[in-house]
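User: My advisor, Dr. K., asked me to get a structural model of this assembly before our group meeting. I'm new to this, so sorry if the format is off. These are the inputs:
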Amino acid sequence: MFGRLNWDQFQLKDPFLLAATIGMPIVLIAVVVLLAYFKKWGYLWREWFTTVDHKKIGIMYILVGLGMMVRGVAEVLMMRAQQSIAMGDAQGFLAPDKYAELFSVHGTIMIIFVAMPIMIGLMNIAIPLQIGARDVAYPALNSISLWLTISSALLVMASLVIGSFSTSGWTGIAPFFEKQFSPGTGVDYWTWALQISGVGTTLTGINFFVTILRLRAPGMKLMKMPMFTWTSLTTTVLIILSFPALTVALLLLSLDRYLGMHFFTNDLGGVVMLYNNIFWMWGHPEVYILVLPAFGIFSEVVATFSRKKLFGYESLVYATAVIAILSFTVWLHHFFTMGNDTSVNIAFGIATMIIAIPTGVKLFDWLFTMYRGRIQFSTPMYWTMGFMVLFGIGGMTGVLMAVPPIDYMVHNSVFLVAHFHNVIIPGVLFGYFAGMIYWFPKSLGIKIDETWGKVAFWCWTIGFPTAFFPLYALGLMGMPRRISHYDDPTWQPLLIVAGIGALIITAGLVLFAVQGWKTVKDRKKNADTTGDPWNGRTLEWSMASPPPVYNFAVIPHVEERDDFWEKKEKGTAYQRPEKYSDIHLPKNIPYGVYIGVASFLFGFAMIFYIWWLAILGVLGVIVTLILSGNNDDTEFVFPAEEVKRIEDAHYERLAAAGVLSGTSTTTLEHKHE
Amino acid sequence: MVEKKVFRFVFKVSVVAVATLVSSCQGVALLDPKGPVGAVNRDLLMIAVGLGFLVVIPVIAMTVWFAVRYHESNKKATYKPHWEGSLRIEAVIWLVPIAIIVVLSYLTWVYTISQDPYKPVPSTEKVLHVQVISTDWNWVFLYPDQGVAQVNKLVLPVGVPVTFDMTSSAVMTSFFVPDLGSQMYIMAGMVSHLNLLASQPGQFTGKNMEYSGEGYNSMHFPVVAVSKDEFAKWVTQTKATPSALSWDLFQQVNKPQKDYPVTTWASFDPAIFTKVVGLFAVNHGDGTSKGLEPAKSTN
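Assistant: The format is fine. Below is the predicted structure of the whole assembly, which you can bring to the meeting.
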């Protein structure tokens, strides 16, 4: 009846996990009861769970990402503590398989359930506003994508309590992840969580690809798009092209594990090398899927806060495109040491290095945007400058590892760990932090608390080198990655320093939360009444904050890059239309939640071999899709009078803020100072 | 005068810094290699770091410089809000990285060929063959030319090029002796190769670099490089003991277990290595069966 689900699967032995096993259900029940007590369930269902409004979906994505980040960081602290202690006779407090579970779940969570949701969240919040659209191309699909992400994140969380997660890393290790070597639930948790979230991400990719190509405001030619929109467009192309490779790799693995086939096994014709090839055909572009939108954010931030046009717009566009194309030609550098022919290693090594060229160009373009600007040191700009200082080092170590003979020495060592954290933390995470703070006032209508934001920034920027530069040294000393115990006493001091760095970073994360809390606490005082708190350049700053449900009362006509800023300069911004008309908007739908629940049950059932439930889950998805396809009542009319009322209120606030009296940017600048 | 003092101070500090850096390299395995393979890899690393700094240092310096110079409080600095491009600057920021990558690509081309792990290290000495079998979670070393075998300890003669023929009896592993040079993956049913040479005597640590399960932590072993004479003596002494590693005994060693005690055998069943490869053989349907060729030859 319940497959391999039995009481032994519940984590009751380990004290840490016991706390989670007991704590998580209690917290869940408490939340459910409290929400019911305060009668908030109806509100949540109407306003959030069933919404198709991209702005709210974006906020939910970011909340999922930040929530999962808490778990990801908790795992870091446990791993760093273990490595600081477990030298020689000291065994530390984590058994090898528990440690392996931690590094596997840490990577999976940070890439798939922190970085991806925050990135997609920011795309949701900003892109329709940047291109002058009222929603995404497929609002219902957007809701479904969100719930697929939530259901797969819940699967990963469930692994904490029932069964255990994979021990074969976030990338999977062939043939170690085969049933012969890893018979438990772990690898199946990993595959199904990735599969379900992968479907959600692919749908998002298609959605935003179509949105950007089809829903731009009149006049916004491709070469007039804001840079974040450009990099997001490129990212959606990468998502659409690369995610099928992941799906196939995981599907073949599942065929091995469930039906006894032999794709990646040692014996009977299985080829372990095939897995590495297929996985990294997705895995490498995935890195650029994460980092390109961050590059877009840096472009927006650096131009806005330097109060200057972006330097080398065309260069940046072409550099982005070159990076995207090349990202598909370098996957083999993840296994130079697999005995490949020298010519193969040379080709992939050089292809990898070539990526450094457009990336370097981007860095210089941002620098020359700052050059001859009037730089306002706002928190997003802090994150951008921190990125520019730290990212170069990570990029350089990446180029080092692209040289095959160097890679033969540092591959699989903690040098590699230091390298990819050095590109992902300053490159991706700093970018998302900058983006979250940059668009926070737009999204919620509250100006952010800069003081705590800057303290948080300094914790990250000091904590990062403290935590990861020792790993470069340890890598050169020959320390392998993923070990939970070692005998070399010279490693310990450096690992303790790295542990202190992790604590400083954690403090940074806590202070980031403090910043959010302070911001929301002082929301009355810091209300953003103009909708343009940063003296912004692109269309999203031309409406109220938070934007009305229809985004644009009248779809703007775009003439230039940085159209809103140009209009402010000319004094033609904030012009009122002669009249407002009715606006058609998509209606809320419950299908996203249904599909999320059904796919969670399907994933859980597959992991524990509960076949009847798996079939029910699939049927649930199919029936929901049929219902959703037959639903013709998808739109409602937002009446013109209501639009006028909302817009009148906005213009009153603008007038009160003194923006309308003189619409030049100088007026706004004075207001800031 | 003040400038001179400052200059002297900076000079002294940098001398001390460089000296500390150099002295701290001793003991950093990859920067203080004990063989020619590691030495060339190290030099390549240093050159690549130097080339990388050509971009990284200006970026860091310009970030700080521009941030200070064009901070909004500095009203004296030039402000050009509409300036969005300059062909000259664009040319430089594209061409400089291109030039660096061209140089590095050339080095990659040349050294990837010369550092090919499958190619024996050039030497006047005859190559020593060592067969390596990685198990869950121990290392078995077979010396086919000498006829001796050892588990969890590797003895090598100084100055003699060594060719490792490697296979796995379980999951994928990676064989690495940081002091000597390059690493190589080891896979079941396949044979991969690695060539190294120890140019000075000493005791190093060899290790598995690829996570392989519960016993991964302890999958490291002493690598002892001794003079040719001492190596010959070790072989003779070993051969004098009445011990043999039969296929049956190998299967005992091969069972999943951690920290198998270092053991030496005077002789071993010469079929062990091919048998381990054959454990995962592909049946071709025509009665013949053979292990998969290593990645190299299938290309």
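One thing worth pointing out at the meeting: Residues 663-673 of chain A have pLDDT under 50 and may be disordered.

User: Perfect, thanks a lot.
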